[in-house]
Amino acid sequence: MKRARMENELVSKGHVACPGCGAALAMRYVLNVLGPKTIIVLPACCWSVITNRHPECCLEVPVFHTAFETAACVASGVRAALEVKGDNSTNVLAWAGDGGTFDIGLQALSGAAERNDDIIYVCYDNEAYMNTGVQRSSATPWGAWTTTTPATHFKGQEKKNIMEIMAAHRIPYAATASISMPEDLMAKVERARDTRGTRFLHIFCPCPTGWRSSPDLTIELARAAVESRAFPLYEIFDGAKRRLSLDPAPPAPVADYIRPQGRFRHLDSEQIEAIQKRVDEEWLSLLRLIENNPA
User: Mind giving me the DSSP string for 243-284?
Assistant: First the structure.
């Protein structure tokens, strides 16, 4: 894979992300493509802390801090205000974690998507409420430890399929991406930038703190999720047509992705095999959707 082109470095020194934070790298890649003519709407999440304490900010673009549940509706308001001024070229970027997207912010996101408001919405997914103490979200996968789903009572529900929820709104563009595949990620940001209407990017971002993993394994874990098909990379156009970005054939065992993470340490071989079976089923289901309506 080619080296990612970093032409617009808009995340400056001084951010306070944890060592190995996948979300910090995701922001660098996205802003590198969108450039300085971007306004970020930032709800309560890890990134509202990563920016540093007021009045300092590590982001070299305007940032609008807002309430946990309001990323999408505030972004819609920012877009409306820009249009009143005759500005249709500034990127409006709503940037939220999985808690603020899958759960608390879903109503606002659904409203913006139903109206097809002209915003880019990025969910950086670290699979729990990491900023407030590693509580489970509906993005937390089955079997995972969190502080609200301890090892003796681990999460017993599957991860919510946010991509199909967004597809049901028939928005013009939605895509998954991973910080381990920067060229693919940045190409999808370019496509989102050049599309009008509501655009949704679901970026997979390991969190060493919440995943109980070594900070130097962040990229390896993100890559393992893709190569094991636990996190497929694909695009959805107009809520219907789908295109696979990468087919890791043959796939790596899901155990290669699961084992290095302390949040799954309590699982036995049978339970990991159950995760493997579920991943295989989800992959086949995705392939059927792609075959029935390819992009």
Answer: EES---SSPPPHHHHHTT-GGGTT--HHHHHHHHHHHHHHHH
